[in-house]
Structure formats: structure tokens, C-alpha cells
Amino acid sequence: MIDRDEDITVLREIPFSVDSESLQRLLRIRPGSQEAYNLDKMADFAREFGKPKAIYRTVFIDGSVEDSISVGGVVFKSALLSRKLESVGRVLPFVVTSGRELEEYPLDRRDFLEAFLWDSVKEYVLHEAVEFFRKEASRRNLVERLVWMSPGSGDAEIWPLQQQKELFSLIGNVKEEIGVELKESFLMIPTKSISGIAFQSEKDYRSCMVCRRVNCHYRSAPFDRKLRDSLE
């Protein structure tokens, strides 16, 4: 289901799949084991009750000054974001979530392995939702290569997590539309949610490229020292 209200688009009940066999291989779980059985049960729950969602807004850039950029009247402080958007006229601030429905799974939080498996299932659902958002937003906005930056992703000084507040204010009533709540800590509930500013780019970009963190399970691109050093 897709709702549009002027410049805001809400994607509800995003289609997704959970490939149990792929998850087993990714998590190195032995087929036929108790862990594999538990993972299958979790995947079945996600398929039946999961309703991942997304919201994004089409906004134009007002202008930039040194390490800050104004988007739709909201100022963001990030030298890299300002640089990435210097030749971009239109951006898509967004939030994508695996959905509050998955928080209803009867999880035994004392069982750390079970908690890890369920976390992995929700991460899988979020990944599916993000890919749907990427394709749908690209199609609707005639964008060939859609990339994004997220507050707090990568090193903290790249784009401070605290600017989640400004990002949410730019998008609108995110909690009412897709159930994602921004806490005082600037983290999101549900935790399997991602926010950011998406934009067209000739070159690929991922926050991982400027993050020095090693052995990160979620790294999607190698560290680019030249790009990182250019920010200092």
C-alpha cells in the first residue's frame, strides 16, 4: 500500500521474503540442528506478521555554508553531507523500519542465542525493506543511482547522531505514519530502523567508506582512507 500526500510518500506493508536457508548459511547454523529449527520458526512468524514500512519526503536544498547545509529550511551540520549535496538540487529524507509488528514475537530475552537469531531475522527484513525503498523511490523520482547518508553512521563526527531530531522534523510525523519513535537518546524504536537523506549520485557512496570501525558485521563497503582524510 502506497500513500502520497503532496511531497510525502508512505510505503506500508512492503513486500519481503525471509530465506531461511540463506540465513542459516550466513549465521553458520548447521541444517537440521535445534538452532535451524528455531530460525525457521522465527522466519515463519516474520512472514506472517511482518509489515515493514517506509516514509520519505521530496525536498529541495536551500544552500550550503562551509560544513553546514540547509535542506527544506532545516540546517544539518556535516562537511561530508554538504560536499555530497553541493551539486544536488533535490533530496529524499527518509525512515525505513522492519515494523513494530515484529516486536510482538514471544522472545525469551534470557536466551542470548535466541535473541541473536531473532535480531538477525529482523535485520534481514529491514534489508529487504531498504532495497524495496531504494527501487521504489528511484522509480518514482526518476533516479538512476540512489545513495544516502545517515546520522551517526560511521564515525560520529561525520554526521552527529543528535541530528536525528532535525531529520525527523523535516520528514514529518514519522511515529504516526510508520510507527517509528525517536527516543531522547536519538536512537529509534523499533531498533531495526534506518534513517537518512537519499540523493542521486554518479558514484556509489556508503557510510562504511569513512568509518574506521573494524570487524563490523554490517560493513557494506571497504574503508576509503583518502576520502576520510579529506574531511580533516
Automatic annotation (TrEMBL):
GO terms for molecular function: methionine synthase activity. Residues 162-203 form the AdoMet activation domain. SUPFAM superfamilies: Methionine synthase activation domain-like. InterPro entries: VitB12-dep_Met_synth_activ_dom (IPR004223), VitB12-dep_Met_synth_activ_sf (IPR037010). This is Vitamin B12 dependent methionine synthase. It comes from Mesotoga infera.
